[in-house]
Amino acid sequence: MDDLFGAGRDSGAAIEDDGDVEESGESRRVSPRSPLAVRMRPRTLDDVVGQQHLLGQGSPLRQLAAGTDATGPAGPSSLILWGPPGTGKTTLAHVIAKGPGRKFVELSAITAGVKDVRRVMDEALTARDLFKTTTVLFLDEIHRFNKAQQDALLPGVENRWVVLVAATTENPSFSVVSPLLSRSLLLTLKPLTDADVEGLLLRAATDARGLGGKVELTDDALAHLVRLSGGDARRALTALEAAAGVAFGDADDADGIEGTGGASVAAPVKIDLKHTERALDVASVRYDRAGDQHYDVASAFIKSIRGSDVDAALHYLARMLEAGEDPRFVARRIVISAAEDVGMADPTALQTAVAAAQAVQLIGMPEGRIILAEAVVHLATAPKSNAAYMGINQAIADVRAGLGNGIPAHLRDAHYPGSKQLGNGQGYKYAHDAPHSVATQQYPPDDLVGRNYYEPTANGAERDIATRLDRLRRIIRGK
Fold first, then answer.
1. Same domain for 268 and 304?
2. pLDDT of 1
């Protein structure tokens, strides 16, 4: 198994096992003991999984990888790659570095300082002038660089001493200084789809650089790995490698018990669901995002919030998140529940739900679980009212039934020429001129006068609304 499973992460290695690649002045070759995610890193853009919106023929990425600049001699040739972890930012940097006459240098914004940046710039200028070599500087987590550190990059980027490929998981509009942003192409990477991750895992299982066909994934194991990846290719490959290690360990134990006499087994080792569960210490959640379980769990989640069972609601929230459900889907359901089930009994519930949805978009997972949990607790423990929901449904039913004919003349627009001759606006009472800014006046069409759609409950804030609404209706209707 030594050729399958490495002991440590070769984080700076160039991902090619059939040749040497320059990195920071050193020549390195990917070891068979390197992590699977490193060994499987694509060598060309055609090998890249996902991000097809950035990889079309003639796209800036393809031209840059080929050693040309699609933006012309005066345009930016540096890139800022913005996207979630595991979507291919580092991979794209390595592929670009493999273009003709390229040298690859990698810095991390966590450990590098202004001195390191200036040293790279000086060496890049020398490489360009003396050896006609372009330096590709990959800067990971650029959002951690302060303004002074980012400013140190400007001369090299502006004068094209380097091709900067900067990666960030945070919005560059807020984390990257404007001069650097304006001199770079901003490319947004999307999370990998389930199909992307599935294809990547199957390729890793059979590719000679990966597990070389020595393993076979069952459907359950594959689905489990895809669910837990969260659209992160690196996480998926790391999980596959761990599961393969468990499967090979079981196979070795079985060989010892059965006494095969050292005979080699040609058949691939099967990776089953139990191997992925043991490797990842995460039980498989029976949950098909395209099937009944998806809707059953989501339904139980909403009904638990509606029924004010906060503990059950948190259970179903955890079940969805652990199964790899898109947190944005969960956030949308919470916003709907805030309006439909809590309503005006606690008007702040909708504010909490909307804020949670926005925060999850900004923060992502796994921290997003805390934000979603807070919103769920608020909604589940809040007083409930579906009065607004029922009100709009009844109003729509009347409209579909053909009720609500015309608009009272005094409410019609009286600003366009000829409108006054039609009687528009005549007799309209300006509410602010009346006592308490409430005038006695007909607002609905004639056939809907006296129709009540909104009937507040006695729960929470609606208790006070009911009292006020009764007074308003009596004044408006002149009763």
1. no
2. 42
